[in-house]
Each structure stands twice: as structure tokens, then as C-alpha cells.
Model the fold of this input.
Amino acid sequence: MKVLVAVKRVVDYNVKVRAKGDGSGVDLNNVKMSINPFCEIAVEEAVRLREKGVATEVIAVSLGDKACQEQIRTALALGADRGILVETAEELQPLAVAKLLQAIVAREGVDLVIVGKQSIDGDNNQTGQMLAALAGMSQGSFASELVIENGKARVTREIDGGLQTVELALPAVVTTDLRLNEPRYASLPNIMKAKKKQLDTLTPADLGVDVAPRMRVLKVEPPPERKAGIKVGSVAELVDKLRNEAKVI
Ligand code: AMP
Done:
């Protein structure tokens, strides 16, 4: 069983992002970039399937500029077998990403695609669902458990107030939630080995996909600054402030 995992290059989750002065986007100058955390979980799950002998090959794919090679190499160090970079300078929106992944799925004959439930930069939560729809594959989103058995995928999904278990015919798309697993750290020897693993580069044109954006970002702005808190001297003062200043009682 071939497994494809999508790894997105995003601003590291520890970085406090700043909007550009002109509101046209997020300032990426000298900012640490990493694999999207939900994609790390996707890589870990795929590698565990290979270690259990369920998967025969794990392919890590990233779409974006040349720098995304770094995230593919990290996925290779975590245990993926080979990588594919779809290189483009165009800003990729979820529909374009889903179409590119669909083309790779068709080209590679993939049985299972594991993507993150959402990218922490755009918070889109769209790619996996769009890919499943475009490729006519089953989907199990927000997975907190994945079992492959008898040619089917059993996915436990995190839904409001509980868990839902669904059985999917393969090929399928699974999107990862936080509790699916705890990703491993890449060891130094594996980082060295990853440098020698195969990494192919394609372009959207090679895959016959039009990646022109369908959506225009009008403005990016930081949330309003919060006022500093104060200490009140008594319960009466607190009640007075809640009633007359905050107007919440
Ligand atoms: P989104 O729909 O943007 O929230 O992204 C959900 C998931 O789709 C991510 O966690 C990735 O697994 C995958 N994905 C989205 N954009 C890219 C990209 N440019 N390169 C690789 N994977 C991506």
C-alpha cells in the first residue's frame, strides 16, 4: 500500500506573527519556518504504518517554492521513503493544492493520502476534503485513530462532544487531528540519511494543473491590542465595574 503525505511549509508555531505594515500579508522576513504541526502527525502516522508492514512506501510531498525542500527533507528524516516537490512561485490556495495532490495520486497510484486537518497559517481546513471530492476518494477527517484492516480504513473522528468511527473503502483521504499520535524527533543519523533519499521536482505544468488563485486577500491585520488588567480593592468595586464599565451584569 502506497501512502502519500502532504507537508506544508509554514511559520513555526512558536513564532509570534506580525502583519506587514501595508496590511498585504504576514511578514515572513527572517522568520523561522517549519512543517505544519498537523502534517508532522501525518508523517508519523504514515511511517508507523510502514513500520507495521501495512504500508510499502511513504511519499512526502510539498507544494510551494524551492525552500519547501527543507520540510520534505525533515519528513524524509522522520522516515518517509522519498519526496516530491511541486515547485511554484505562485501563492497556492487549497483548491490548487487539492488539484495538484489529485494529479500526484493518479500518477503514483496511491491507496491512502494523509494530510493535516488544517494549516496553522491559513487555518483553511479545506485541502483534504477538496482532494477527496475531486479524486472520488473516501474521506475521514479529524482522525484521532486510524486502523487499516481487510483493505479498509477505520477512522475514529473527533467530533463535537465525542468520537465517531467510520469505515472507509480505499483509496481514502485521512486528515489528522492532534491526538492521532505524538510525532518522533528526527535523529542525527536519520537527518544524514535523509540527504541521500530521492527527491523529485515537478511543476504544476508537468501535472497539467492551473494554480491561478481564485480568491484575493483584501487585508491582513493583527487583533486589537488588549487593555492591561487591573486589580480591584473589593467585591463591591468589582461588581460596580462589571455593572457600569464592562456592562456585563
Ligand atoms: P489547509 O486546507 O490549508 O488547512 O491544509 C490542510 C492540509 O493540506 C495541510 O496540513 C497539508 O497536509 C496539506 N497542504 C495544504 N497546503 C499544502 C502545501 N502547500 N504543500 C503541502 N501540503 C499542503
In short: Residues 37-51 form the longest helix (15 residues). Residues 6-8, 36, 38-39, 42, 62-64, 92, 94, 97, 115-116, 118-119, 122, 124-128 surround adenosine monophosphate (CB under 6 Å). The radius of gyration is 21 Å. Helices lie at 37-51, 69-77, 94-108, 127-135, 188-194, 235-244.
